[in-house]
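[Meeting: bench + compute handoff]

Bench side (C.D.) handed over the final construct sequence. Compute side (W.E.) agreed to return the predicted structure before the next meeting so the bench team could plan truncations. Sequence as handed over:
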Amino acid sequence: MGWSSYSLQVYYNDKNKDNSGNYYTSAQGVMEQSDAMREKLGEYGYEYINIDAGWNGEGDEWGRPQPSAEKYPGGLDGFLDVVRHVHANGQKIGIYCIPGIGVDTNDSEQMGAPIYGMQEKYGRAISIGEILAYPYQKMDAWDAYTLKIDFSKAGAQEYIDSLVDMFGDWGVDFIKLDSVTSGSDRTDRDPSDDVIAYSKACARNSIWLTISWAVDHGNVGVWKKWANAWRVEHDIEAYDYRKGMVEWGTILRLLPAAELWWRDAGPSTGWNCNPIVFLMNAFTYYGDFQKYMVVNGGRIEPSFTTDEFKEGLKYIRSLYEQELIAPETFTQDGSQLTTMGLAQPQILGAAPVLNSYLDEMRTRFVTGDADIDAEWDIYLRQLDQMGLQEYLAVLQKTYDAKMAALG
């Protein structure tokens, strides 16, 4: 359980029409959140701090990204101060990466940057440009940041090793590898080799690897073998501050993913990071009082501003009292995922199944394919057998809790 900078980044960037949300990836912003989480939520098991996109600035002499000197006073020194601060609070810190390598092929200095340790291993220098796939191919899902690495080339795995070794030396505890396709809105590229390379590098540094965002279930065998966790659906952010940080439409689309993926998670394989969301949003539209909680594979990830932790904690307690979040949700090893107090994964996927059956029978009744008088009781019994009453009970408890929390 922990905090990630991303939701506040996109919320305030949209609200203020500037880059003010990037404050939450700065030294001061991260340390403030770390302190607030320790003070208000530490006793409940919150311990993870994730610094999302935007933490890095220029690269070092070996072509590896370094902390932004604007966000971290002194660059790396400022970042290391943050790491020490987070660790002193008894927390773990994570960092954001994407597949491929960020390099300008027209920049001879970037292309010629040597990969760390190659002289000793191969008896010659190997440059960043030499490990790129040719012809050059875009690798990130936005076609904006990275080029594809050819992992059959000498120096390719070693580049990722040197990058993750560096993170390990900094004290980084976990990596979020984002923009993992196929999936993530792209079917025209495969980052499996990147995931494998990061996995190997993370293993030797005892760093946890989570891949993101809507990864392809068709590659689940790769994810289960090489990643510790994988995110199975799109962002839940509304990307419109007037709606709050999230909206119900982005939440409800996640339920079918839970139904598809739940069988693939476990202690020996890895964990689904499906944002099955419990929304806590005052819907003040133009206000800052937005809160939500995301159940991520056994962990609950909040995006609260510092001043909102107290009210958020009151809401969490109300969920406990009404048994909408069961104690099993918080097991440290993630061995039990309980959402809204329900351990049965089939309940999580009830909505799409019920809606499909309702649509089918409505059409049959209207067209005369089914006799509404003769088959009505059978229709109702089938709905009950599909879990309608349990599903309605969950919705009612959710609504009651939300209304009680909002006063």
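W.E. noted at the follow-up: The chain has one domain: 2-406. C.D. will use this when planning the next construct.
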